[in-house]
Every structure is written in C-alpha cells, then in structure tokens.
Design brief:
single chain, about 325 residues, alpha+beta, six-stranded antiparallel β-sheet, five-stranded antiparallel β-sheet, 9 helices, 18 strands, about 25% helix, about 30% strand, elongated, disordered C terminus
C-alpha cells in the first residue's frame, strides 16, 4: 500500500463504496475503519454501517426516525459543534454497527415474555392465556391450557396476544399446540381450522404503559388497542395434540414487541353443551432479540420509532469493540 497508495483515493468514492458495501459482516466493516483514519472517515461519512444494517433488515429504514445515545456526557459547546458533524456521524455509525452485529450474530431463542390478553376465556382464571406459556399440558397433575368461550357458529375466530421479550425482534417461526381433553370421552382435540399471525405495537404510549403493568384482562381485548405492521399468510392447523411449527415466509422484523395469534375457525364441538371451542396448551415464538442495550420507542401509528442506545455507564461509546484508528498512516491491511 506504501507504493500504490490508498485504494480509496486511487479508485474514487463511487467504486470504493461499491467494494466496501460488499462486506456483509458487521465485524468486517468495523475492521475496515481500523485500517487508517481515511478509511474510518470514508466508512463513517458514507453511512456504510447503516447501509449494511438496512441491507440485512430492510424494514429498519421505514421505521427508525432518529437515534439517541444515553449516558454520554460531553461539554455543551462540543455537543453544539458536533450535532451535525463528525461526532454525530461517528456515533450513528457505531450504533448501527452494534445493532447489526447484535441482530446478525444472536442465536434463535424463545421470544415471548408474557401473555397479554385473550379475546375470550371460558373459565377464568383456570383456563387463562397464561397457561399457554407452560410447555407441558399438565402442571401439578392438573390440565394446563387456554380455552375460548363456546360458540354455536364454528366460524367465530379467537385471538391470543403476547408481549415479546424486546421491542425489536426478528421472528422466524411460531409454534402452536392444540389441547387434547384427555378427561373427556373420545379424547377430543380442540384445535382451530387455521392460524394467522400479526405483529405490531400498542396504539399509544398509554396503551404501552397499561400493557407493561399487565392491566389487560378478560373482556378488555379489542383490535383497536394495537397497530399491526405485519400480517402473515393463513396456515392450516392439524387437529392433533402436537406442537405444530409455522415457518414465516421470511423472518419478520417486529417493531413494538406485540404478537397476536389469530385462531380461525373451530373444528371440535363439546359433547356436553354442543358448542364449538378452541383450546391451546402451548405457544412459542422463535427468533432473535436486539441487545438489552437498545430500546425502541414507537412515536406514531405508522410504527415510526426512536432507537435509543444505552451503553453501560462504565463504557464509553468510543471504546470497547469500536475503537478509533490510532494513526492516520495505513496499517498492514491486505485486502
């Protein structure tokens, strides 16, 4: 590189951008900023970390309106000078790089943190939606499941609403297990005919506060409480006692942290009263969650939000895995 010079200067900004945009790993992009100060400035000023994040997760560009960083203390005059300058761009670069790294590298895990509300419940609280968070259909020798109210009309739908473990999750699979009533004659399975999934956020900050305090209860459910930014295709459900896997056509970015499972159509009539019911023993959503260092605050009904990055108090944003290049001279990078 000492002989041919910096390839960014040699090739020019357009071709250099196209080359660096081929990097599909956030760690590689961070390493590129450590080659020299000119590389660091080029990557940061051209927003390549944000571009990579949006490439990996296209929905981000439609929803994230602004970025805020907490726990950063700097003189007021520096804040005023840097608002639209280098520090602002550099900080956004690091936040987007952290976010892309966290979402890309985190392993798939169960993402449901709590049950919010069911559209109906037959015997509350014995057959509450909270029972669906238990993997087993028996707890302490008692049946564990949620049951809808009975209906004469088998087309009446039901809905189960859950809070995800983070306000920004990527959901790829959802599992639903119908309940088999082993205490009834013939051991009937009270499945739905089909299922559909919606993801979104509460309609207002007040709704979010109520949701987080767990103040939803039976009879308080309405679709008007939420804004759904994603609706899946309809999936057929098998009438059998098994944990049924429903893979979404592609991983879905859920901004707002709310999942609704729509249970469409009833297939099993209860012999005792002749009414149709839907009963579910277990629900699980699998995907990746954003690091706890991030928080997403939904601003309006469209789902536009503010991304807040909260680094630990003992860690400056300019340190850790995103250190500045120490020298303006090129390193021994060979790429």
């Amino acid at each position: 590189m000492e002989k041919i010079g910096d390839f960014i200067e040699f090739l020019g900004p357009d071709i250099s951008s196209k080359i660096l945009m081929c990097l599909d790993d956030p760690s590689d992009l961070v390493r590129a900023t450590a080659v020299s100060r000119s590389w660091q400035r080029f990557v940061v000023e051209n927003g390549l970390a944000k571009n990579l994040c949006v490439t990996l997760f296209p929905d981000l560009s439609s929803f994230i309106k602004s970025i805020q960083v907490k726990n950063i203390i700097e003189p007021v005059e520096e804040m005023l000078c840097n608002t639209l300058g280098w520090e602002y761009l550099n900080r956004n670069h690091r936040v987007y790089a952290c976010m892309a790294h966290g979402l890309e590298r985190s392993s798939d895990k169960s993402c449901i943190s709590q049950a919010i509300v069911a559209s109906s419940t037959d015997n509350y609280p014995d057959e509450t939606i909270e029972n669906t968070l238990e993997p087993s259909d028996r707890v302490d020798r008692r049946a564990s499941y949620w049951s809808s109210e009975g209906e004469d009309d088998p087309t009446v739908p039901e809905a189960l609403v859950y809070k995800l473990a983070a306000n920004l999750c990527i959901i790829s699979e959802i599992y639903v297990q119908p309940f088999q009533a082993y205490f009834q004659y013939g051991f009937p399975v009270y499945s739905a005919k089909s299922v559909r999934f919606k993801m979104g956020h509460p309609k207002s900050s007040r709704e979010m506060d109520v949701l987080m305090r767990g103040e939803y209860w039976v009879g308080n459910y309405t679709n008007d409480n939420f804004v759904w930014t994603y609706t899946s295709p309809e999936f057929p459900m098998i009438q059998e006692n098994s944990l049924q896997k429903f893979s979404l056509p592609e991983p879905v970015l859920c901004i707002g942290g709310v999942l609704q499972i729509e249970l469409l159509g009833r297939v099993q009539r209860q012999e005792m009263d002749g009414l149709y019911y839907i009963c579910i023993s277990h629900v699980k959503a699998v995907g990746r969650m954003l690091s706890p260092s991030f928080e997403v605050n939904v601003m309006d009904l469209s789902g536009r939000c503010t991304l807040e990055y909260c680094p630990p108090l003992d860690q400056n944003l300019s340190e850790s895995q995103f250190k500045d290049a120490d020298s303006s001279e090129p390193s021994n990078f060979r790429g």
